[in-house]
Amino acid sequence: MSARFGPFEVDSDRRQLLKSGVEMHLTPKAFDLLLLLVSEAPRVVRKDDLHRRLWPGTFVSDATLVGLVKEVRRALSDGDAKTSLIRTAHGVGYAFTGHLERVVSTASGVSRWIVAGSRRVALDDRETVIGRDPTSTVHLDVGGVSRRHARIVIDGYDAVLEDLGSKNGTTVNGAPVSGRVALHDGDRIQLGPSVVVFRASTAGISTETIA
What's this model's pTM, rounded to 2 decimal places? Predict the structure, then answer.
């Protein structure tokens, strides 16, 4: 995933944060935090969720997380609380609040993404898991969605969906998913009570404004 906001660009594959084309230094964990907040924007990511995803199976103090947030804000020259790109939801967590343009490069030249509410999650040429598990690529924190509910696999020009033995099942445009189902632009995927939309385009992912 590559995302642009103002003079900045963050690239997950190259693990780079650029400002007007110049690389900005971030420690690995601070980069992971920025990438996580950008990918989940505009949703507030809870502190316990951040701890699980940044330090799985390890206990760290809140002070460590606060230090990472400060490092990211310094890299973004984000010292003014009134115009902050990283918003603190006191007692809850953090959210990215900038204007985002997300772009994903694929071997086939086709950009693919999932629209989940106000979020657009870019899909790359690897497996994409959708579910309630916080480590899922498309995280749906909704009752009735299994922890690993379904997955999308990109193979060249093709995208296929598989149910992962979910409790409440998966449908595409109302048809139950059994085995591998090919996906096409605009397909509505229902996972338990939640609905997401699969999008595909050779023109890339459209600009997305985050309020």
Answer: 0.54
